[in-house]
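Hi there,

I know you've been waiting on this one. I reran it after we fixed the sequence typo, so this is the corrected version. Both the input and the resulting structure follow.
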Amino acid sequence: MDVQKPVLETTLEGILARNIPDFQRLLRVDRLSGGASQETYRIAIDTAAGEKLLAMRRAPGGMKVEPVPSHPGLDVEALLMRSARAAGVPEPQVYYVLQEADDLGEGFIMEWLEGEALGARIVRAPNYAKLRPRLAYECGKLMARIHNIDLDATGLRSRLFEITPREFVEQSWERYRLLETPQPMIDFTARWLMAHLPVAPRMCLVHNDFRNGNFMVNEEKVVAVLDWEIAHIGDPMRDLGWICVNSWRFGGELPVGGFGEYADLFRGYEEVSGQPVDIEQVKFWEVFGSFWWAVGCLGMAEHYRSGPDKTVERPSIGRRTSECQVDCVNLMIPGVVTPVQPNSTIQTLDMPRADELLTAVRDFLRADIMDSTSGRVNFLARVAGNALDIVIRENQLGGPARALELEKLRAFYGASAAADDLETLRWRLTRALRDGTQDLEDERLHDYLRHAVVNQIAIDQPRYSGFKVATGQRD
C-alpha cells in the first residue's frame, strides 16, 4: 500500500517516539532523489540536544516484497549493515526495522551520516584529490572485511541465498529472456560467460553492489558502505570485478571506480583477506557486471510498464542497457566503428517541426523547471530532459542505424534473409545464440554486433566513455 505523506508522518512520529532516545517531535520528512530500487527519506527530528537527522530506507510504495535471490529483503539489509559495522566496515547505526504492524511496508530507520556518495564528484571534485590515490586500496580492504564476516555467527547464512557463478549467469539470462526483447549482444555475452565460468570459487558473503556511488566518503576516508539490498553468498571476486565495471567509473579513465588502479585494489584486498586475487575471475566478473546491469536496465523499463513506480527515472534507466552492451563489445570483441550519420533531410512542412517542439520542452525542463525546484523534482526534471534528448537523437539517427543493421543481418544470412525485416532477423540471431547453433568466433557476427551496439548508444548516450572507446575517440 502506498502511504500518503500525512499518514506517513503520523505513523513515523509514533515509531520514532518509541525507538529514538530523547525524541521530542518530528520536524520534516523528505524523499530524496535517486533510489530507483528503494525509496530513501531524510527525517529531521527535535531532541533534547537539538535537531537530529535520520534516514529511512523503504520498499517502493511501501509494498511487502517476498525475499528472492536478487532481493533478500530490507530486514536482511539491516542485519547486513549491523554485521558489517561489527566487523569494522563503516556503516550507519540501524535504530529500528519496520514491522508489519507499523503499516509502512518494509524498511528500516538508521543514523544519518554526512559525506559524498555521488560517483562523479568522487572521481572529479578537487576536495577529494588527496583521497583518490589511496581509495582503491581502501576499497580492497573493506571488501576483504566484508568477505571475512562469519555467516554462521551473524545468522546471515540462513537469511541469504547462495548463488554460484553458473546460477548467477543462468538467472540473469533467464530474467532477460522473460522480457521477450531480442538483444543479440546480451545473448552473445551470456554464451561467453557460460564458456568462462570460474571453477570452484571460495563462497562467502558478497555485497554484490560495492561500487563508486554506493559508498560515502569525506575528504579523508570512506564513511559508509551503502545499499546492501542484493547481497548474497557467492564468489568474492564478484565484488572486485563489479567496482571495475565501466558504468561505475563516471567518465574517469582509471579502471577501479574511475579513481584507482587494479593493483591497488588487489593489494588492499590481499593484505586483509589473506587470499590471493584471481585476475581472470575478476575479468569474468567485470564482463558479467556489464551483462548483469544491461539486463537490470531493461528490467527497470519493464518495471515502469508493470510496477507501481511510474516515474520517468525507470524508463530512462532502461535505455542505459546500450552503455553496458558497448562495454561488453569493448571487453570481448573490440574494434573501431564509424557511427552512422544523421538524416540529411528534415521534414519542414510543419511549423514548428516535431524536433523543435521536443527541444522547446527539453529546454523548459532544464531552465524553468530546474531553476525553480530542488530535491527529487529537480532530479526528475533533469532525467526528463535527458529522455527528450534521446528521442531527438532517435529521430535523427534511428532510421540510418536500423537500415545499416538490416543490411548487415541480410548479408550475414544471405539469400534466405532477403525478404525478412529487422525484427525477424534479430530474433533469428537471438535464438541461434541461445540454442548454441551460432558460433561465437564468427568475425562477421562480431562486426554486426559492434555496429548495432555502437549505433544504438549513439542514440542513447553518445557522451558515454565506452562509446568513445568503440569509435576510436579514446584509448
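Quick highlight: The chain has a mean pLDDT of 93.

Best,
R. S.
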